[in-house]
Amino acid sequence: MYEYAPKFKKTREKIVLGISLVLAAAAFGVSCIPGLSFVVLYQLLTVFCLMSAILVTVRYLMRDYIYRVEPRAGGREGEAPDFTVTERCGNRLSVVCRLSVTDLRRLTRVTRQNRAELAARQKRRRVYGYTAVMRPENRYVLTAEDSGEEIFLSICADEGLIRALQRYAEQLMSD
After folding, report:
1. Residues 108, 47 within the same domain
2. Neighbouring residues of 33: CB distance < 8 A, sequence distance ≥ 6
3. Quick one: which of 21, 64, 138, 166 has the most CB atoms within 10 Å?
4. DSSP assignment of the chain, as one string?
5. Mean pLDDT per segment of 10 residues, for the chain of length 175 residues?
6. Listed residue (123, 124, 121, 161) closest to 140, CA to CA
7. Any idea what the CATH number is for the domain that residue 71 is in?
8. Is residue 67 part of a domain?
9. What is the span of the domain harbouring residue 102?
10. Is residue 1 included in any domain, yes or no?
11. Predicted model pTM
12. Are residues 48 and 70 in the same domain?
């Protein structure tokens, strides 16, 4: 079994949250000026800034993901293990993804050079984002097959997780 729980400082997310809150406070303050025309636009800006602050807080600051390659629950000896993604939101843990490593087809590190190609391959397909930061440096895209359909998982991985996945999935191609 291998487990990887990345720890990030999330500085970029905190900056975005701070800017959203400051912009919301400023827009609300401006909207309270008497005699100002188009007050509703400033109030809408306030609402959008507060919504983005809530989104950043819930999506990035309150969540973390744990990636595991573990033996299949109730599985027999020698069976291929499962790749699981567990989401930690506050004190609550919930498994959000469980795939057999035999269903994994490709592991691709996301770089500036291949970002457009990956986006083109992912069009009109199921894409699951299991990263708790906006732009992680060690981001990988796992391509898997689920019920005959190609799906994509966006994860943060270290060398140990990559080796654990490649050890069990012989057909897993790395880019």
Report:
1. no
2. none
3. 64
4. -EEE------HHHHHHHHHHHHHHHHHHHHHTSTT-S-HHHHHHHHHHHHHHHHHHIIIIISEEEEEEEEPPTTPPTT---EEEEEEEETTEEEEEEEEEGGGEEEEEE--TTTHHHHHHHHTTSEEEEE-SSSS-TTEEEEEEEETTEEEEEEEE--HHHHHHHHHH-TT-EE-
5. 90 96 96 89 96 95 92 72 91 92 87 87 89 89 87 92 80 57
6. 161
7. 2.30.29
8. yes
9. 63-174
10. no
11. 0.83
12. no
How many structural domains is the chain composed of?
A: 2
Q: Both tokens of residue 127?
A: 């894409």
Sheet arrangement for strand 139-146:
126-130, 149-156, 139-146, 104-109, 173-174
What's at 100, amino acid-wise? S
For residue 106, what pLDDT is reported? 87
Contact, 61 vs 17, CB < 8 A? yes
